[in-house]
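Quick entry between incubations.
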Amino acid sequence: MKNTRINLLARPIGNPAPECWEIEEVDIPEIEENQVLIQTQYLSIDPAMRGWMNEGKSYIRPVRIGEVMRALGAGIVVESKHPDFKAGDSVTATTGVQEYAVLNGKDVIKVDPAFVPLPVYLGTLGMSGLTAYFGLLETGQPKAGETVVVSGAAGAVGSVVGQIAKIKGCRVVGIAGGEEKCKYAVEELGFDACVDYKTGDLRKNLKEACPDGVDVYFDNVGGEILDTVLTLINLKARIVICGAISQYNAIQKPVGPSNYLSLLVNRARMEGIVVFDNAPNYGKAIKEMAGWVAQGKLNGKVDIAEGGIRAFPETLMKLFKGENTGKLVLKV
Amino acid sequence: MKNTRINLLARPIGNPAPECWEIEEVDIPEIEENQVLIQTQYLSIDPAMRGWMNEGKSYIRPVRIGEVMRALGAGIVVESKHPDFKAGDSVTATTGVQEYAVLNGKDVIKVDPAFVPLPVYLGTLGMSGLTAYFGLLETGQPKAGETVVVSGAAGAVGSVVGQIAKIKGCRVVGIAGGEEKCKYAVEELGFDACVDYKTGDLRKNLKEACPDGVDVYFDNVGGEILDTVLTLINLKARIVICGAISQYNAIQKPVGPSNYLSLLVNRARMEGIVVFDNAPNYGKAIKEMAGWVAQGKLNGKVDIAEGGIRAFPETLMKLFKGENTGKLVLKV
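Done. Structure below.
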């Protein structure tokens, strides 16, 4: 039994090119006391991965050169020397991009695949969903009747942000790239409107979709879209900075929001979030979101890429090309 | 008895050129019931004036073309038909750039020149001081032992921000242009350090002056200085956006802070303030600050420009050239 894994070979400049990766086959080590051996079935493909590949101080240490690429995964316990797990258990954990992971049981979370399918625990009930939940509710603080705008509206985080904002009684306007994604946000996720940033005048279209202005903006993309929304915010607006996928592969310095003085004029706030800060409250949030899924108020759509572990490099690029709808996972 | 006043004749592009202004001599009208006639003695010269000259939605309506330029002033009541005022009272009000102003008594504030000199009511105990007070304490929320950085450190707002932060037990680091201003901030205002942005490597010098990073940054200047401080902030830092004097005369679109993703990495917050929102609490704040002035903890330095009302256009330009130290007022 061999383990195929993908290591980070070089730090990318711009897009992560194939040369950044090394595919390696190694033996699976014997597990020790308190460890479990997990067979990875699905890998979460996240924009944050691009940041983990960079050197320098961030909210989490960079992946080291030669180290297996960091990734959240969902899989099955094959062997356990930890009292809380037995072979056959479904679990999620930071498995890394590999077919088999050996982890201490304390870093592994047991999940119930009878309740929702395993990959949903990487999406709506995983980091993406938790990011949406805490970012919107704690930092965005939307009130019923307010207008919430979210970019990356058809993506893993944005789709959940919009649905939770609807549950909270807000007018929800998405921003997404292409007619198909916009249709998905409105027809399948229940957004009030969704603006295609690839066609027409974004500011004009967004202004029409937000006749009462923007109270909360949840930003996943950065760049010109953030700058445009800044011109439409209301007094005391809250801007949640969750990500900036438009900038992650930029070789030049990222573009700053030149309209940031709108924060002054409108006494508004722009605040960054990292989901890990809310770890003590994950359980409560997952329970509430699971309830919404059960009631049909929260859609758990997963975009499953095929091809196995070796397809990881090109699957990651799908994110930056905007080719996914909903949470992107790789089937291992 | 004639009133000399300065009207806005044209909206400036870039620096407010002499052609933007019209000097006019008019009769002083008879005052009506509840009105007072004020002889202006000092005019507050503020960076915000540049914004008031622009068209477009802001936190206050633009000065209209042909209208007397908006300004806060301090002076003496010459005649009163309002029960709360009598001739000889010292007052502050939005007098406009003119020698005599007719105002409803409800828009006039009586002050005591025996307590502090009249121009101090335009500075430390006026809008500049109130902006510093509320911006720092309510939005910045500094805690004892934290590091507070303030730009425009020798200016009307920055000098008060730093002194209040010292009163609250913080390490205070200023940023100012030129050796003389930095010396003033450290030696006369009691800052722990002050970095001259005109010499050497700002980031390196600032990093040395803030060995524990930056917890609160009070920004009066915007541009590259804001962008540099963003690279030095701590977890959960608060950035108060009070102004952006480096950008007010920009003809091109202002430069956005390209390092804004530091807000994400550090779960930090950037928030705009406008002092008018705190109007209901001015009285309490002025009382507290007056106490600090009386105790010698808060310096009320005023930079008095001479030349009378006709010197207003060039006095305003002193601000943008960075030629003032402390609150700039024009003696009328």
